[in-house]
Amino acid sequence: MSAATETTMREPVPAGDDDKGAMRALASALTGNLRQSGIFLAFAAIVLIFSLAHDQFLSPSNLTNIVLQYSYILILAIGMLIVIVAGHIDLSVGSVVALTGAVAATLVIREGQPWWVGVLAALAVGFLVGAWHGFWVARVGIPAFIVTLAGLLIFRGLTFLTLSSISLSPFGGTYYQIANGFQNGLFGGYGVDVFTLVVFGAAVAVYAWTAWRSRRARQRYQQQVEAFWWFVAKIVVVAAVVMWFAYQLASSRGLPNVLVLLGVLIVIYTLVTQRSVFGRHVYAIGGNLNAAQLSGVKVKKVNFWIFVNMGVLSSVAGIVFSSRMNGAQPSAGNSFELDAIAACFVGGAAVTGGVGRVTGAMIGGLIMAVMSNGMQLLGVETAWQQVVKGMVLLLAVAFDVFNKRRAEAAR
Amino acid sequence: MTDNILEMRSITKTFPGVKALQDVSLTVRRGEIHAICGENGAGKSTLMKVLSGVYPHGTYDGEIHFDGAEVQFGSINDSEARGIVIIHQELALVPFLSAAENIFLGNERRGAGGLIDWNRTNAEAAELMARVGLNEKPVTPVSQLGVGKQQLIEIAKALSKEVKLLILDEPTAALNDNDSEHLLELLRQLKAQGITSIMISHKLNEIAEIADRTTIIRDGRTIETLDMSQPEATQDRMIRSMVGRDLEHRYPERTPNVGEELLRVEGWTVHHPTQPGRVVVDNASFTVNAGEVVGIAGLMGAGRTELAMSLFGRSYGRNITGQVFKHGQEIQVHTVSDAIDHGIAYATEDRKRYGLNLIEDIRKNITAASLGKVSRRGWVNSNEEMKVAEEYRGNLNIKAPTVMALAGKLSGGNQQKVVLSKWIFTDADVLILDEPTRGIDVGAKYEIYTIINRMVAAGKAVVVISSELPELLGICDRVYTLAFGRITGVLPVADATQERLMELMTMEKETAR
């Protein structure tokens, strides 16, 4: 295609005006979607601040640690994002994490069943819990706040009953490896795990290739695309950051299993929310319930499956958490629901529903994770850590509100 | 020399990139009813926001003189303190508080120790309510009152603030004919008491009936101020000034080409969803043919919307009985998706609440009811979707930079075009349009009519529910009348007049037989 059309075509996300020159493309890409880019910039700034404040913050072992420590919150945040976009809330996920972990521990540790029996049983329990919530929310029509508040109590109680109020440990074996194991050594290496680098390299290649394909598809349908240099620059930056991160992991202990799991879940759920009919219906319900209903969306069915999905993801988080703890405790997962909810709101989800992205929730969760980890490294008291995290949540949403107002005023 | 209560001189208000008002002047005489009309987006509301201090002094250029002195309002409180009260289209009442509490909200009648003096509150409220002709108890929660009465509460609230200049934004848009008439009568009484009113309205009949003078605004400029007692102040003249072009006809020409029967409804009866035993639609039967525009006329509460929504996948009511035939075959329509599958579409009267997802873009709204057509195995092809949306944006002339613009940011007319796009894209052959031109300016109305004509020319059938009888007479082939849940008549448009329709629309049960 010719150079002339190249420069006039770009991302149509901000209500478009004609584009002259590279700086304006950059500026509009940043400001046009301020909420999205703002969150990435905030994340980068926080990482930068902690890396300056503590020399071990970006060390390979600490980065590995962050991934392992907060993976289950991120898994919960994926499901929670869908729940929140549809205009609901789920307060029970912490209790469900505990219950599913307890069920797995009872079977594997107390009954001596193989690890996969524990995993399948936990997933089944998660499914049933989700169906229970879905039934009350979708069929009976009770607000999710009430249903899941009841769930928080019910499933915590059932956890205590399952475990007879004592902790069970250790899992050991394969179950323990789920959250504590690494994929490495397959291709050998000299202090740096080649396998990890290969996996990340492949992921970056796939990312670049799909981005290129979708760009080509957009051009075929004669839609605007961003300038070519901008497109390339974006991919180069993403690739550089990801490969740097991969190098850090590779020079520590390799690729954590949970990171693979998390990566797969993020890809799947990004597609589900952005590309599937089900995902579209979730946004339609959250955006305007009445309009969705009158457009033929089967609201009850969609709501039911949203909660089933949340239940199943809670059980995945429960498996990861119990594996990482190498056992099950009656009080496991306390207040996880609040961390997951906070991740979604920091990541740009709207309290009123209809708005939010999986990637946003992940960055939101990572911001909270990096803040906790960084403050721990710096030896900040737990009390102050809570205060700071609370302020971050408040300011993130306040920033959002401020932005919206500015956009309104500019109209 | 005439006594002007308000002079707005050379008001210019700029938003980033847009000149919303340009050198607008408005002069209102003491004690008159002054109408302001113009297309949606012409700048009427912006002008009123400047006047009432929503946009504070300093954010616009120009001068405002009120009651003999220059005023510089910093907020809406400042303008209210001077006696300027604005009543918005969306009423600002608290539903669970009583009429009296709403009237004195923010302006409570206090007694000893700063506590609310309930006796005084209710007594004064009763007085004010009597003054606006509202025969209700002051302790009644406003949620129990109809829209018309709520409007009166708003006016009573304004009177409690010792209003000198009352501004009403589209006061009758949501009112039925009776309530509208009552409201206009009230405005005349207030005028007799010396209260000046500014009324923003689309309803030209209403303006002709009540206004002393009318200022017309177009594209952020004042076009002219007409003295309504002069013979040149005709509706055609007003329309011409509003749209800036000659509208030879308010309704586009169409050669009727009626084909075979498409939809037949027999013995349709619907009960109220929460009040058992109350029949909302009573044994209604009607037919719609291919290539035909059929009107349904009826007063508020006649059951028009209820009839349409119950047909559309039983979205309203309970204990629904009756039969629906499509091409002569009986069909079962139990859910909205059944209705869509059978080619029936329903565009609601309230597009913001029931028709659109305002926080999503145009594209996603257009495909919302037939996502299956742009997806395969549950996955949406967003490029195909974009292509479809762009086609509709072009064909229906939706004014937006791209289809990625949010539906909530469009004007009423363009929102309605998005709703129509959504339903046309479902491939429906029976389209039920409930008040398709409500709150839409004259130019966009014409476009909507043109779209309707294109649909029937393509062999589809369109059912139009409307409160505006001239509109039904202008665009329909046949008009059914509905009164108290019953179909009381059907007239070919050639035989129909407004008087004849109104007669049928008010026909009571005994005489209907």
UniProtKB/TrEMBL annotation, chain A:
<feature type="transmembrane region" description="Helical">
    <location>
        <begin position="228"/>
        <end position="247"/>
    </location>
</feature>
<feature type="transmembrane region" description="Helical">
    <location>
        <begin position="38"/>
        <end position="54"/>
    </location>
</feature>
<keyword id="KW-1003">Cell membrane</keyword>
<keyword id="KW-0813">Transport</keyword>
<feature type="transmembrane region" description="Helical">
    <location>
        <begin position="187"/>
        <end position="208"/>
    </location>
</feature>
<keyword id="KW-1133">Transmembrane helix</keyword>
<dbReference type="GO" id="GO:0022857">
    <property type="term" value="F:transmembrane transporter activity"/>
</dbReference>
<feature type="transmembrane region" description="Helical">
    <location>
        <begin position="144"/>
        <end position="167"/>
    </location>
</feature>
<keyword id="KW-0472">Membrane</keyword>
<feature type="transmembrane region" description="Helical">
    <location>
        <begin position="253"/>
        <end position="272"/>
    </location>
</feature>
<feature type="transmembrane region" description="Helical">
    <location>
        <begin position="91"/>
        <end position="109"/>
    </location>
</feature>
<feature type="transmembrane region" description="Helical">
    <location>
        <begin position="115"/>
        <end position="137"/>
    </location>
</feature>
<protein>
    <recommendedName>
        <fullName>Xylose transport system permease protein XylH</fullName>
    </recommendedName>
</protein>
<feature type="transmembrane region" description="Helical">
    <location>
        <begin position="66"/>
        <end position="84"/>
    </location>
</feature>
<dbReference type="InterPro" id="IPR001851">
    <property type="entry name" value="ABC_transp_permease"/>
</dbReference>
<keyword id="KW-0812">Transmembrane</keyword>
<keyword id="KW-0762">Sugar transport</keyword>
<keyword id="KW-0997">Cell inner membrane</keyword>
<feature type="transmembrane region" description="Helical">
    <location>
        <begin position="302"/>
        <end position="321"/>
    </location>
</feature>
<comment type="function">
    <text>Part of the binding-protein-dependent transport system for D-xylose. Probably responsible for the translocation of the substrate across the membrane.</text>
</comment>
<dbReference type="Pfam" id="PF02653">
    <property type="entry name" value="BPD_transp_2"/>
</dbReference>
<dbReference type="GO" id="GO:0005886">
    <property type="term" value="C:plasma membrane"/>
</dbReference>
From TrEMBL, chain B:
<dbReference type="InterPro" id="IPR050107">
    <property type="entry name" value="ABC_carbohydrate_import_ATPase"/>
</dbReference>
<dbReference type="InterPro" id="IPR003593">
    <property type="entry name" value="AAA+_ATPase"/>
</dbReference>
<keyword id="KW-1003">Cell membrane</keyword>
<keyword id="KW-0067">ATP-binding</keyword>
<dbReference type="InterPro" id="IPR017871">
    <property type="entry name" value="ABC_transporter-like_CS"/>
</dbReference>
<dbReference type="GO" id="GO:0005524">
    <property type="term" value="F:ATP binding"/>
</dbReference>
<dbReference type="InterPro" id="IPR027417">
    <property type="entry name" value="P-loop_NTPase"/>
</dbReference>
<dbReference type="InterPro" id="IPR003439">
    <property type="entry name" value="ABC_transporter-like_ATP-bd"/>
</dbReference>
<keyword id="KW-0547">Nucleotide-binding</keyword>
<feature type="domain" description="ABC transporter">
    <location>
        <begin position="6"/>
        <end position="244"/>
    </location>
</feature>
<keyword id="KW-1278">Translocase</keyword>
<dbReference type="Pfam" id="PF00005">
    <property type="entry name" value="ABC_tran"/>
</dbReference>
<feature type="domain" description="ABC transporter">
    <location>
        <begin position="263"/>
        <end position="509"/>
    </location>
</feature>
<dbReference type="GO" id="GO:0016887">
    <property type="term" value="F:ATP hydrolysis activity"/>
</dbReference>
<keyword id="KW-0472">Membrane</keyword>
<dbReference type="GO" id="GO:0005886">
    <property type="term" value="C:plasma membrane"/>
</dbReference>
<keyword id="KW-0762">Sugar transport</keyword>
<protein>
    <submittedName>
        <fullName>Xylose ABC transporter ATP-binding protein</fullName>
    </submittedName>
</protein>
<keyword id="KW-0813">Transport</keyword>
<keyword id="KW-0677">Repeat</keyword>
<dbReference type="InterPro" id="IPR053466">
    <property type="entry name" value="L-arabinose_ABC_transporter"/>
</dbReference>
